[in-house]
């Protein structure tokens, strides 16, 4: 194959990969069913309409590089929309996002798709070093057509960027081992810093860096200066510090969040307890993620490369094998954790096919026969993923969460109070504007065209999930018009009725006492969702004359969980926006009885309760309450806020 032909084939595969990752990129919108953590954290950092840009993410479950990338991207989207006359101010832009986040989500997913296509582009030169043109073309083609990689490239997560930076680092290490120079080693270190600043597991790239140094010493002897790999590690540390600076500046918060992630990884995920990592990832690898044909070819290619002591195979294996080992030590399982290994497994699969074709008996075949055999091997490796693609398209084309949302909007009176479990419908409610700056909230209300509902979410805990028992009391939701269950939550509780007796009793009583009005079984994506109507009410929540005081949670022996304050805050906002100010005051007060972990939530509870008291004509009560609260508050920052707020209230009475 000529150099020009290789270039055209490489460009074609990259173009194909980008097209597949951009196709139906708007799936689900305007509803957002992915976590989209980098996008949402970056949006919060902008402080739209409130103050200047806040560069401290105050979030360190992940490093900060992807947050800053989305931060810059959101600024660019605002600039383009402002120039195009689509929005006239930052306030207008923020309000449009609150009502319909599609534009910002599409930009974020497009960035993810670009990372996915860039990973395919990087797979080619890695494959060429691993086994020549066939390995390069085969590995890149398998990755371009990987349904798993396509799907993850259409969700805003950190794993696809991590995979891209992992391949970039490995390619830089191969180049540094081939032609040692200080510049090459510094480039490899910088790429490693980007990977580690995307997700902490990128630090495992220090292992192939060591392998590359050994290979370079073996191949080039004194041409490799002993301190160059050390300089590469220093470059990685500097790049990490430059792109995640608040890990060091706000080290206390970093330590807290990083500790939580370690706990999460060690304790596992609610609903997957009892499944060994080896069994879980074995099923994943045997399925459409890789498939048995590709897995066997990858094993052959890996074994062949290591046995022949090929530099590329040794360096890639120095990351692949320890990474798979580390992932298997975690109790928490997720398919996406294997994503950085996927391109390497596919490259080794292509190398395995090449090794088979190089067997003496097969080398004697005519060129057309060998080409046909190569195509057959690669097609067999790609088959599980290709067969999964139609199912993926169905899953993003029809989702029970979107279907149930549209059904509620079409069949339930506006102003109804809808209590829902996680992974349920996404409803629009005026209470969401209360936490926004006034100008943004007012503009969002003016833009909103969807019917509004009071929405109250029942929390779920991935760690120690039994703590939700106090929230699974049907009497708590006596004022609700609808209650929505999601099998993504209900099904997990049902698997262990002994541990989750309160939750299972809640569902049994719900089936007995409430009317089951709609059931959305999954035909594509999403869990089974069931909608229940409270037979007690014929008038929606917003139109009732009076609402009784909400009950307090009956906590178990473990005590508060940390989510009680959020629960009552959300309940209070529903009451407030529908004019039920007395129960709103009670809800906000109940929220303050429990530990309030975040200062922002504490300020919101205090502010909303004071505002409701003032609207009730009880301004003096608000002043006395704030004064007593300030005297009793032990945290100086919160006490200062209470005194400041009291001054504001007093000056406006």
Question: Would you give an account of this structure?
Answer:
Strands 2-1-3-5-4 form a 5-stranded mixed sheet. The radius of gyration is 28 Å and the shape is globular. With 653 residues, it is mostly helical. It has 28 helices and 5 strands. The protein has helices at residues 3-22, 37-46, 65-83, 90-99, 102-131, 133-144, 147-152, 159-178, 182-196, 206-220, 228-243, 246-249, 251-267, 277-286, 292-307, 311-329, 342-357, 360-363, 367-397, 400-411, 438-447, 487-494, 501-513, 564-577, 581-593, 599-615, 619-632, 636-652, and strands at residues 417-421, 454-458, 482-486, 515-520, 529-533. Helix 5 packs parallel to helix 8 (159-178) and helix 5 packs parallel to helix 17. The protein folds into 3 domains: 3-64 and 106-397, no CATH class; 398-544, no CATH class; 555-653, Serine Threonine Protein Phosphatase 5, Tetratricopeptide repeat.
Identify the notable features of this structure and list them briefly.
653 residues, 62% helix, Serine Threonine Protein Phosphatase 5, Tetratricopeptide repeat, globular
